[in-house]
Amino acid sequence: MSKTVANSDSWALVYSRRFDDFTFGEDHPFKVARYRLTYELLRMLGLLDLPGVRQVECPFAPEELLAGFHAPGYLATLKEFSRDNTPRANFRYGLGDVENPVFQGVYEWSLLGCGGTLEAARQVVDVGCRVAFSLAGGYHHAHAARASGFSYLNDAVIAIQELVRRGLRVAYVDIDAHHGDGVQEAFYTSNQVLTISLHESGENFFPQTGFPQELGEGEGYGYSVNLPFRAHSDDLIFEQGFRSVVLPMLRAFAPDVLVTQMGVDTLRTDPLTRLEMTTGTIEYAAREFLATGLPWVCIGGGGYEKLNVARSWALLWAAIVGAEVSDHLPDDFVALIRDLGYDDTRLRDVPHLAQPNDFARAQESLEKNLRVLERKLFPLHCISTGGGR
């Protein structure tokens, strides 16, 4: 990567069939098969053969870059545990429990996810792609010396550190249902990286962080931004929050590069979360990110229903490359997923609104959180009250 950021009408998808070589286990909620399913849907929709679209093989991350964030002892233990399927655990490092299982190749799996995000950043900064999307990125819960939330290496942190090392200011926006705690931790004292996380409230939800009062420390005060949503928040709540916080903060910060984590566990049919959003939210966010005109490094994230992930990221990619797609899945994809036990035929979700009482509570919570940010955060960036609404 170089310091010069180019911009053109080309797009890179970072993917590898090597993703299929790994598994968290049959009973684990994280299904690696979601990547292949997404790729097949993109292919069947004709979204990989468009002018300007390039497919890039996902590389392994250079090991020497990991120590910029992760502790040496943690890395050594992760690498050792990865060598075979011998049952092992180190709870100090968060390894070997139900959430973060140890399996043969877990270190290599993590290097792939991290390498994909680094490659996406390289495609944007060095190659000059308008947008690069790494499917197997977004492990935002990994801490410096602890695995957490299915995350072993924090790919976003390592890639952003490389961008900052080259003199670039970076805005990181995370729309996963879970707070991007590991990324926030890494840059909590920095004014070179703006972190924004929109997520389900951590009051009684993993990882129990991400409240509006978490604004950063020292030089980083005002550069950590959190907007939690109450359970049952729907697309309308998300849009209000996005317009009120994300857009004005991006304008005020004026980054050189935009990095986004596009987890889709916000969908109402995700088995691990309690939000009520639809694929409409993903398309909306994609259009808004694209409209900023910023060089955009797009990475994956959560999503624990395989078909939700494939449909959402196909719509995300279609928005990125400016392609029109039908509301319905291609016939050959319908046949493919029928063999997997699905009888779905729709690419886009039908519009959905939360129940009136749930919506009213979510709206009240949103307005309360916005008032905190408007009072404590916006003056630091010369943003007028209600400037995004």
Automatic annotation (TrEMBL):
A matching Pfam family: Hist_deacetyl
GO terms assigned for molecular function: histone deacetylase activity
Domain Histone deacetylase: 28-319
Entry-linked InterPro entries: AcuC, HDACs, His_deacetylse_dom, His_deacetylse_dom_sf, Ureohydrolase_dom_sf
Record Gene3D superfamilies: Histone deacetylase domain (3.40.800.20)
Family: Belongs to the histone deacetylase family.
Protein name: Acetoin utilization protein AcuC
